[in-house]
Prior knowledge:
This protein is mainly α.
Amino acid sequence: xxxxxxxxxxxxxxxxxxxxxxxxxxxxxxxxxxxxxxxxxxxxxxxxxxxxxxxxxxxxxxxxxxxxxxxxxxxxxxxxxxxxxxxxxxxxxxxxxxxxxxxxxxxxxxxxxxxxx
Length: 117
């Protein structure tokens, strides 16, 4: 991420100073590769939440990572988003849960738009 963010050091000061550039890359330039990498960096720092969410959905995984060729249709049945929110809302911030739910929908279901607001 340090290289993709063009930062000499990956620390809180560098991230704060770089935030305006990051927003420009996301909002103006629509750099999808950067957006994907940034999302994955944010999520990887919350592996406990990812593992818990996959557990709620009973998706087979190894410490939060699942097979790339996974057929998610039998796990992501109607109402799956709400099941994750209901089960984990007391343990994790809602924005983080919504972020992961939408990421999971994008990754496994190829959902073009956010699944949850």
